[in-house]
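Interim report, section 4.2 (structural modelling).
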Amino acid sequence: EVQLQESGPGLVKPSQSLSLTCSVTGYSITSNYWGWIRKFPGNKMECMGYISYSGSTSYNPSLKSRISITRDTSKNQFCLQLNSVTSEDTATYYCARYGGNYFYFDYWGQGVMVTVSS
Amino acid sequence: DTVLTQSPALAVSPGERVSISCRASEGVNSYMHWYQQKPGQQPKLLIYKASNLASGVPARFSGSGSGTDFTLTIYPVEADDTATYFCQQSWNDPPLTFGSGTKLEIK
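Predicted structure of the assembly:
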C-alpha cells in the first residue's frame, strides 16, 4: 500500500525557511509525480508544485521565487523548501502522489501543521 | 489562474440526494476531480476526470460535467458523508487549482 508521511518543524520564524520531508513507502518516487499542497485556515487549498519521476520540477508561479522541491531517491523521500516565510504561509502542508495521466491526487499524507510566528 | 467556485454549505437528510456544484472560470475540458475531507484527516479522492469513480469509493458517489460546470452527486446520503467536498482542476496548469470547498451537513 502506498503511504506518505510528512515530517518537519511545526513552528518557523518569519523570514526563515520552511523545510518539510515526505517519506514514501510502498511505491518508488522514481515513478509518477509527487507534489506539495497546502491548506490555509479557512479552507483555501493551494497546489505548490511537484517533482516528477525523472526529477524535473514545476512550481506554482505565485511561489516560484521562494520554493524548491528536491528528492532523495535512496531514501524514497522528497522535500519542500519555502524561503522567506511570513505569517501568510501558516497552513497545513500535505504531500501527495499524482495519479494517472490527469494530475489528480490519489494518495495523500496526513498533513503537518506549520505556524509562522516569532 | 482558473478559479473554481463552490457553494459554501449544504444540509440534507439521510437517504436524500445531494448535488454539489463546481463552476470553473474557464474551460477545463473534463479534467475535474473531487475530494472528500473530514476534520483532522487528509483529503480523499472520490472522482477523477469528471465522472470516474476512484478505487474503493462507494457507488453512491457520482460525478458529471464538462467544460465549466461540474457536479458531484451523492445518493443516498448517509450520516458518514458529513465532510467538506473540494473540486480540483488539472487542465489549466500551472497552477492546478482547488475550489473553496462545500461543507455538507447531514441533518
